[in-house]
Amino acid sequence: MIGDMNPATLANVIQNNNDLRVFCNGCGRCRDLDVHALSKSLGPEMAVPEIGRRARCTACGHKGGSMQVVAVRW
Ligand SMILES: [Zn+2]
Q: If you measure from the C-alpha of residue 74 to the centroid of ligand 1, how many angstroms do you get, rounded to a whole number?
């Protein structure tokens, strides 16, 4: 688990071949995110928890979610 003191960035996630998932704080739904698309729109130095704060749920409209880094096995 990565602590808040040293949040992972999009660049870290891509480097490790990981995916990102966001859990809605309103309804609990989760959604997988396209890290490469996020890196292009927000920049590779964007901190992962900050993406969660900005995310808006497509199901219930709640703003803010919890981020989870998902390890992709090759
Ligand atoms: Zn929701």
A: 31
CA 42 to ligand 1 centroid distance, Å:
22
Residues 6+ apart with CB under 8 A from 62: 24, 25, 26, 27, 56
Element (H, E) at 51: helix 48-54
- Ligand 1 midpoint to CA 67 (Å): 13
Domain boundaries, the chain: 10-71
**pTM as predicted:** 0.82
Q: How much of the chain, in percent, has pLDDT values that exceed 70?
A: 91
